[in-house]
Amino acid sequence: MSSELSVTVWNEYRHERDSDEVAEVYPEGIHAVIAEGLEERGFDTRTATLDDPEHGLTEGVLADTDVLTWWGHRAHDEVSDHIVERVVERVREGMGLLVLHSAHYSKPFKSLMGTSCSLKWREADERERLWVVEPGHPIAAGVDEHIEIPRAEMYGERFDVPAPDDLVFTSWFEGGEVFRSGCCYTRGSGKIFYFRPGHETYPIYYRDDVCDVLANAVEWAAPAGGPEPFFGNADPLEELDD
Amino acid sequence: MSSELSVTVWNEYRHERDSDEVAEVYPEGIHAVIAEGLEERGFDTRTATLDDPEHGLTEGVLADTDVLTWWGHRAHDEVSDHIVERVVERVREGMGLLVLHSAHYSKPFKSLMGTSCSLKWREADERERLWVVEPGHPIAAGVDEHIEIPRAEMYGERFDVPAPDDLVFTSWFEGGEVFRSGCCYTRGSGKIFYFRPGHETYPIYYRDDVCDVLANAVEWAAPAGGPEPFFGNADPLEELDD
Amino acid sequence: MSSELSVTVWNEYRHERDSDEVAEVYPEGIHAVIAEGLEERGFDTRTATLDDPEHGLTEGVLADTDVLTWWGHRAHDEVSDHIVERVVERVREGMGLLVLHSAHYSKPFKSLMGTSCSLKWREADERERLWVVEPGHPIAAGVDEHIEIPRAEMYGERFDVPAPDDLVFTSWFEGGEVFRSGCCYTRGSGKIFYFRPGHETYPIYYRDDVCDVLANAVEWAAPAGGPEPFFGNADPLEELDD
Amino acid sequence: MSSELSVTVWNEYRHERDSDEVAEVYPEGIHAVIAEGLEERGFDTRTATLDDPEHGLTEGVLADTDVLTWWGHRAHDEVSDHIVERVVERVREGMGLLVLHSAHYSKPFKSLMGTSCSLKWREADERERLWVVEPGHPIAAGVDEHIEIPRAEMYGERFDVPAPDDLVFTSWFEGGEVFRSGCCYTRGSGKIFYFRPGHETYPIYYRDDVCDVLANAVEWAAPAGGPEPFFGNADPLEELDD
């Protein structure tokens, strides 16, 4: 199935062009590395970035996208509300959405969650360990009981999101915090997976285990092919009493 | 406890002033009847309507409101985005919100759900029977196994909302549809209850069983007094490795 | 993927041998019809029945089963506790389980749910309409917005099960009841789907739409390949303070 | 309300009589300390232990119990299946159940969960920090953002329980693990709260913050007074077609 799924990898793509430190880690941009990881795992991928026309998310691109991945950090506000609405609509119609790391504050995610999506954070080069709490979930396929990331930005609870439909990963941090770091949602007919790891200054998206999780999440989030609901004024299906 | 809870009953209050048919059912407005039912059940109630200054929802009123009930139908768009944001913020801080009938399409509910909140509907004077599917839930306290409403507007699935945290009621309709008619959510620190019955042309809010459900929902949705989360840059609680 | 999944279709297989009325509908047994429907949809299927040695559910059979479907009605008590424990253990390890109609009262389902699994029922040749309430769920793939079954046994709420992790279908009945008729659970690493339709006197398992749902459920419930958790005494992963 | 709730505090009560180390911490038994903490917070409490006749859980005692708390560790197997069934039945009818620490392996909890309830563990005098992940939940009332326990037994994920209906607390451990340490369930009409802290060698049940959580949980788990469902053969509520 995976060979036919079409993935669009979206990236803000600013840090990589402005910061030598980030460019050293992701010289072609975070999107290039994520796309390569997914391409290797059998998906048809394309990329799109903030500074492309329409942010690279034209009607045509979205219509041809099964799953969209989203990475953004410092320019969330520059994403046009018009395009955000277009993305959100496609999710409700069934397109999958993978929300990565600092995209917890992106407009599409906040709009789909209905909450502030705030959290605690700290940049201190500390250890993170993601524990699989739901080993029967397809997003945990082929993953070890925990993923250890030697240097990470910390995100800590309270993470202000709705309780996830499925909680797949929970993170431990060296500095004393925990975080629900793999969260599944359904909104409309679309599936959403928030996955925490992936700061711009760490080579996290080069890791095989992280790419495996992303690939699992793409398969899980792909449109399922259920009925398109009719909304509006409906005739009765049974005879009514007078 | 209930004697100390402060409830603000909000109503669009247009149908009752424009339509003789509606005015006959709710001469002082839907809000007056809901407020009276809650007042009788021991809550401190006030009312507020669309055409009040700031829709009656000033900072002061909301700060002094434990639970807000919302009824609207044809003028959702006239509710100022500024006031909607104020309401949504208060919910996230802990204020309870009861979303009634056609307020499924209200701005605060859509914003907090992140979905279209669409559904099927029909005005055909048909019978509705709300079944309690979660009899252990506090919102079902004192309620019979089902509530029968002889004449109702129909709402049918697919109801495009996130799967509720708790599903308390499911409705049967004479014309052949079903509907998740009592849905609980938590968003931020606030609790939200959507309750389906209550069209403007039927005297549904005069019913004791319906008012009992609303009163139960007020108690359930009242602020729980948990910790106010800190969001932002956080110092480590443990010593970090060098 | 489906071509490699191995399905064992279990049936009590008593009604069909004792009752002419049932034998007329299912001359080779309910299991034969279900197995054929799944075989046609690309699964490797075998059948097993109560009166086989070890009820046909030897260690070897279960070890080689990805998904087990279960139909029973009047002889639940004759299923050996030893075999029930074997089935339950395999589910916890990751084997999928489809629980069909009157198997709501089967030992494996009651043991995995921890509740009475009781409900209301009536045999009155009445109409059932299953509404898809979660159109984005993979079990709803290719299904219409509702499935109409002209003559069915009624099952009504309160259905005494834990709130499902995902609620895919809700049924409307002509006689005035509703029922959560497509319920998803995870227990251990195993996925469980309860699906309501399928009384022994109605040819429901010959329907394409019903078989499509069963096939979708087999794919959804198949083992996902996640980590096998370690349980027991664990060494620390971090250095502890003295 | 709390002044009228009747709580039965059950304890295995073996460690305290056999081990000097434990007796030094809990000279009158763990149950005495829990009962005192709840009594001080306004509940009517009684205690019951394994070696009492019928384990102290007669029909009369259970009929008069709103919420039962359960602590056991090394003698789970000595609890009579007959009494377990009695407890489980009462929970399904609406009695609340608080499952404490090592009672994750108790017969009533395993029976109500339907899973193995296994986990990782370690006795190494390490630090635990329970984070509130759902600050709007009534069980978090008056609690700080985290509870720090200086010396605790470690319990680590995977915790083999069904995904909780509400997850209130998640624990961080010094040795590198996480744990869902405050888990809410509804089974039948009864509410169940699993709370992790409380090893027999640590004075954890003397802590005000821990007792506050237990008191909150008692109020949350108390019978809600909803309808007692009818199960069985039901007459139609609507006229059926011929």
UniProtKB/TrEMBL annotation, chains A, B, C, D:
It holds the Pfam family ThuA. Signal peptide: none annotated. It comes from Halogeometricum limi. This is Trehalose utilization protein. Gene3D superfamilies: 3.40.50.880. Residues 7-221 form the ThuA-like domain.
